[in-house]
Write a structure and sequence with these properties.
Protein name: LacI family transcriptional regulator
Helix content: 25-40%
Keywords: DNA-binding, Transcription, Transcription regulation
CATH superfamily of the largest domain: Response regulator
Distance between the termini: 80 Å
CATH class of the largest domain: Alpha Beta
Number of strands: 15
Radius of gyration: 28 Å
GO molecular function: DNA-binding transcription factor activity; transcription cis-regulatory region binding
Strand order of the largest sheet: 5-4-6-7-8-14
Number of domains: 3
Number of helices: 12
Structural class: alpha/beta
CATH architecture of the largest domain: 3-Layer(aba) Sandwich
CATH topology of the largest domain: Rossmann fold
Largest sheet: 6 strands, parallel
Order of helices and strands: EEEHHHHEHEHEHEEHEHEHEHEEHEE
Organism: Pauljensenia hongkongensis
Length: 387
């Protein structure tokens, strides 16, 4: 018995009874307290849980690359020097590193390949995203197998079936459609570790992408400061959740800022230069009035809009201002150069690959804020805020 209680028994009172009455002591951390029941105890502070060590932490502490640390702790250890392998393993034990099951499945694999499926390699945005993912994988000693869904849900399903059957050790997917891509992605994720990038379906599969509402607000704030009152929006609504989210945000922010965005001025088209040009012509032909600005949900649409406006003798930005979204390389080469929302693809790719490899325990949807890149397609008007 200790202080009237069996060894190991709680001194805070039995279950279902009132807490003990304190006769002495303030109950501060570390100070003994005596209760009416005759018990004496000392309050202690429960320590904050420490983050689980990650593979990148082991690599940093051991002074080696992540790829070397991965090999030292799994398959491929015979490919590195014995003293390096032993050193990495010693560091891992000291840090309390435990192999993540997802990462282990990748390290114990036989292919060394990660598959990536994108909606269209013809879209420069996805090629830039692919380049960033490939760079992250190469740092970990893994190879990328790229597949183009060609904007077809059926072809996307075919590609995922091929890749999930043992051709790769993990999958990085930018789904074609927020709804119709769900069955194929759900099946693939049940067979191989999977992460979604840029856009995602409603599944318990991690997704990393830009913060769309923040990006739209940034662009509309920029236009409002430049005297814009009426806007038209070029969108690809209905095909992916990013477009839907951006349109919803544009409506809300435009109303908040007192900007006019008529339902008829939200034009749906595919993400292509030609479709954007046709959409701009429809807006101009329908009303005869030229909006103050075109808010385009990607840079290809902005390029198409500027091309169509110039073809009709409408100067950008003197008569109409235009913004894009993504900041692909062509946005800086267009004349005029395009004001746009820069997506941090390096950070998005790194976070997604880290989750896939088990170095990051994040789940659900992770959104990373983009930044405004101000170029020649927008301007300040007399009387605008900040003039």
């Amino acid at each position: 018995m200790e202080n009237g209680h069996p060894p190991g028994a709680s001194t805070d009172g039995d279950e279902g009874t009132s807490p003990p009455t304190v006769l002495s002591g303030t109950g501060e951390i570390g100070e003994p307290v005596r209760t009416a029941q005759g018990a004496t105890y000392t309050r202690t502070m429960t320590p904050e849980p420490t983050p689980r060590p990650r593979l990148v932490d082991v690599a940093r502490e051991a002074g080696v690359s992540v790829a070397t640390a991965s090999r030292a702790l799994g398959k491929g250890s015979e490919l590195i020097r014995a003293d390096t392998r032993d050193h990495v393993r010693q560091v891992a034990r000291r840090l309390g590193y435990r192999v993540n099951p997802v990462a282990r499945s990748l390290r114990l694999s036989t292919t060394g390949h990660i598959g990536m499926v994108v909606p269209s390699i013809g879209n420069p945005f996805f090629m830039e995203l692919v380049a960033q993912v490939e760079h992250c994988l190469a740092e970990r000693g893994l190879n990328l197998l790229l597949a183009d869904a060609r904007m077809s849900v059926a072809h996307e399903d075919h590609l995922l079936r091929s890749l999930e059957s043992g051709a790769v050790d993990g999958l990085v997917v930018a789904p074609c459609h927020e709804t119709y891509s769900t069955p194929a992605l759900e099946r693939a994720a049940a067979h191989v570790p999977t992460v979604q990038l840029d856009r995602g379906v409603q599944l318990d599969v991690p997704m990393v992408g830009v913060d769309d509402p923040h990006g739209i607000r940034t662009l509309l704030d920029h236009l409002a400061e430049r005297g814009v009152e009426r806007i038209a929006l070029l969108s690809n609504t209905g095909s992916n959740v990013s477009s839907v989210t951006r349109v919803r945000a544009a409506r809300a922010v435009a109303e908040e800022l007192g900007m006019r965005l008529d339902p008829d001025d939200i034009i749906e088209c595919s993400f292509s230069v030609d479709e954007a040009g046709a959409a701009v012509n429809r807006v101009l032909d329908r009303s005869g009035a030229v909006p103050d600005a075109f808010l385009c949900l990607n840079d290809l649409l902005a390029i198409g809009a500027i091309t169509a406006l110039r073809g009709r003798g409408i100067a950008v930005p003197e008569r109409v201002q235009v913004t894009g979204f993504d900041d692909i390389q062509f946005a800086a080469l267009m004349r005029p150069t395009i004001t746009t929302l820069h997506q941090p693809l390096d950070a998005i790719a790194d976070r997604g690959v880290s989750i896939l490899m088990g170095d990051d325990d994040s789940t659900g949807r992770i959104h990373i804020e983009g930044t405004l890149v101000e170029r020649e397609s927008t301007r300040r008007r007399p009387g605008a805020v900040g003039e």
